[in-house]
Structure formats: structure tokens, C-alpha cells
Fold this protein.
Amino acid sequence: MEKNENDTISEEYIPYTRPLLFALLLTVEIPSILCTLLILLYFAFHWRLVILKQLQNHVILLLTIVSFLYLILDIPFSMNAFHTGYDLIRTLTFCLWWYWIDYTLLVVSLYLAAIASLQRHILIFHSHWFRLRRLRWMLHYVPLIFALLYPALFYLICIYFYPCEIILNETSAYCMSPCYLKDSILYNIDWILHTFIPVFVIGLANLMLVIRVIRSMKNARQQQRNTWKKQRKLTISLLVVSLLYFLLWFPSTIVGLVNTYIYPSLLDDLPDLYNVYNLYYFVGPLQPFMCFFALPELIKNLQRIIRLRRRVAPVMPFTMHNTRP
């Protein structure tokens, strides 16, 4: 995970980035919550159309819920630390819970984005597979359930049941790290399984999808062009969601890979590279906007409402009064 990398940043370096991070997160926090509520209301009022009949919207709904939990349960405490320079609560119970919810939500969102990147190949090129109930469960529902449950269980065991004794440091301004992070083997397994692999899958799967769509459109006959235009719209809407994860996670993943396995003194020689680890803070706040643009039906409904309100604009009655000199 990336949060433990941030814990290694020197105290001399953190203060320079902390006010900027607080200002940026504060700027997107409220609009992000409003956008999340808008999407959830849309799903609630149109669940038969957009949930039961459109499988591609399942992962968008789950990502929206995960982002909402991140916005209300996790990011406010990080913002407070950026603003004040210390964690508001530093008890053992809270710190372990915070690490668990933070790591769980981040990995769940990464896994959901990676699974969506793979599933959209089936949705676009082999959608008939999902007509069979068994394949629909194996290829669609089971991976999504795994993405929700596995990270929570993994970090529950590692954070709460790893055999060690956590010693509270009363002089520290921040929460103490979980003990398992000191185990180099377990730490590397955690990083490879829960950061490197999903980021790599997201990047590769979406690159292959773009190549397949372009080739298929070139080889399609004239009568198939209209069908591929619809598929192109579906492809673009689905790519929007994964693009955010790739752009914000890829830099820190590459830096972590090089610093851990190739050039161990990279961050010591180039301390400004620590900034790339702050990018993942914005995945949750920006995710609702990506989900919004991945829902063309919602955009059309909003445009329709705006047009109707403009047409039914109130008209002030004009009356003439006779006046006598």
C-alpha cells in the first residue's frame, strides 16, 4: 500500500506539501459528495433500467459506494492531518481501524477497476456469454464479490491478528503503523498483489481493448458500422472509469517498483518524487465525476430537465391600467 510509503517521508519534507494537499482535497470534497449523491439517487430511481438490465453499471455503482465511504470515513481524517500537522485521534483502536478502512477501500476500488477492465472485453466482444446464468455468475458476479470481500478479510487478518506488540509512541503526532508492515516478505506480497498487479491489469487490459476496438471497426462491414458506433460509445464510457486509476496509481507504482527492487536510494536522491504518492488521495474524491461521465443516460436526463426548465420559465403577466389625468 502507498500510505506506509508516505510514513517514511521526513518531517522536513512533509510541511511543504501538506497545505497544498489540504487545499486541493477541500476543493473537491464537497462537489464530490454532491456528485456521489446524485449518482446514487439516479440508481435508486432507475434501478430496474440501469442495474437489472445493464451489467456494466454494476461496477460503477460499487465504485460510487466505495468512493462515498472513502469520502466520509477516511479522507476527512487525512485532511485534518494535512491541516493541523497531526492526527486528531491516536488511540490504538482508532489507528488500527483507520489503517484497515483505508487499505481496504483503496484495494477494493483497485480490484473493481481491474475486474471491470477485464469484463468489458466480454461485454463488448462476447456479450452473449452473459445470457447463460452459470457464466454470468462465474465471469461477472463472483469476481465482484471477491473484490469486495477479499481485501477486507486480508487486512483484517494482517492488521488485527499479526503476532506482535504495538508500542504506543506518545511523542509521535501520527498514528502508529501496523506491525505487519515491518515484515519485508509480507509487505512485498501486499504491494505486489494489491498495487502492482491491479494497476498492471488496468493498464494492459484497457490498452488491448482500444486496439481490439480499432481493429474491429476497421474490419467491420458497412452494415455493421452502426453497431460498432454503439460499441464505441460503450467503450469510451467504460474507459473513463479506468483512466483515473491508471493516471493516479501508475506513477507511484513505477516509483515504488524502482525504489524497492532496482534503485533503493531513488527517493533519497530525488525527494520530490515523494509527491507521486500523494496522487492516490485523489482517486476517491475524483471517482464520482468519472462515474458520472460513464453514465450517458444520467447526463441525458439532466440535460432534458435543464431544457424543460428553460421552456417553462415563469412569465410575468403584463396588464395595462387606465390612468386619468
